[in-house]
């Protein structure tokens, strides 16, 4: 493995660094974006039950705010439940934008890695081919072993760059779609809360 990396030249170092960062982001996002963590299944039912029993106090709201991203959004609405429907919606939307930003965290970095990894590989290809032509100019084409070093460097960096870029792009698209679905689910829950609080829905 070390020989493989060594034969790819110095550009293998940033490609390997990109792969490590991408792996860390993927593992972290899988952990953070679990549906049961973002949108606990029975959270809305518990809130409505407390509201019906008139047991929803500030301590419950503080606990709700720190429980999950959905809890944070719903808590923003519940704090303003005695105000108009529009005020509740504005409070929910304001906190919702912050929650979406947190769900999107590191995805730009993952997308950047997916974009630059093949470019790093391409740069390695260009550098490797420059070495090949330099050898041809100085030593001719009589020694294929000398030419093979530059050619292998060109091919290895390209392959390494694509090997990092392809899964990074796949996971970036996957997480973007997952976040869209989670946001849609949280919007539905928040809208239901507003309508129930204002007597428009059971």
Secondary structure layout:
Blueprint: H1 2-7, H2 12-32, H3 35-38, H4 43-52, H5 58-67, H6 69-79, H7 85-103, H8 107-139, H9 144-197
Helix pairs in contact: 2-8, 2-9, 5-6, 6-7, 6-9, 7-9, 8-9
Task: Please sum up the structure shown.
It contains 9 helices and no strands. It is mostly helical and 202 residues long.
Written description of the protein model:
The protein is mainly alpha-helical. It has a domain at 11-117 and 165-197. The chain is built from 9 helices and no strands. The chain has helices at 2-7, 12-32, 35-38, 43-52, 58-67, 69-79, 85-103, 107-139, 144-197. The longest helix is centred in the C-terminal third of the chain and has 54 residues, at 144-197.
Keywords:
202 residues; mainly alpha
Shape: rod-shaped
Number of strands: 0
Largest sheet: none
How many helix segments? 9
Q: How far do the termini sit from each other?
A: 63 Å
Structural class call reads: mainly alpha
Q: Would you list the SSEs in sequence order as H and E? A: HHHHHHHHH
Sequence stretches where pLDDT stays below 50 over 5 or more residues:
none
Percentage of residues in helical conformation: over 70%
Using only C-alpha atoms, the radius of gyration works out to 27 Å
The oligomerization state is single chain
């Amino acid at each position: 493995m070390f020989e493989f990396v060594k034969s790819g030249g110095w550009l293998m170092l940033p490609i390997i660094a990109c792969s490590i960062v991408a792996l860390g982001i993927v593992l972290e996002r899988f952990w953070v974006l679990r549906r049961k963590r973002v949108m606990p299944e029975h959270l809305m039912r518990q809130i409505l039950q407390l509201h019906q029993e008139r047991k929803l106090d500030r301590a419950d709201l503080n606990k709700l705010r720190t429980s999950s991203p959905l809890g944070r959004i719903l808590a923003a609405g519940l704090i303003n439940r005695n105000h108009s429907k529009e005020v509740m919606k504005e409070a929910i939307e304001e906190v919702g934008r912050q929650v979406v930003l947190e769900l999107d965290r590191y995805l730009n970095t993952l997308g950047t890695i997916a974009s630059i990894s093949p470019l790093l590989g391409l740069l390695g290809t260009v550098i490797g081919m420059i070495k090949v032509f330099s050898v041809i100019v100085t030593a001719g084409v009589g020694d294929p072993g000398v030419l093979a070093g530059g050619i292998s460097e060109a091919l290895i960096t390209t392959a390494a760059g694509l090997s990092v870029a392809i899964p990074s792009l796949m996971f970036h698209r996957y997480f973007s779609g997952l976040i869209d679905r989670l946001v849609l689910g949280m919007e539905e829950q928040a809208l239901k809360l507003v309508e129930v609080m204002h007597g428009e829905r059971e």
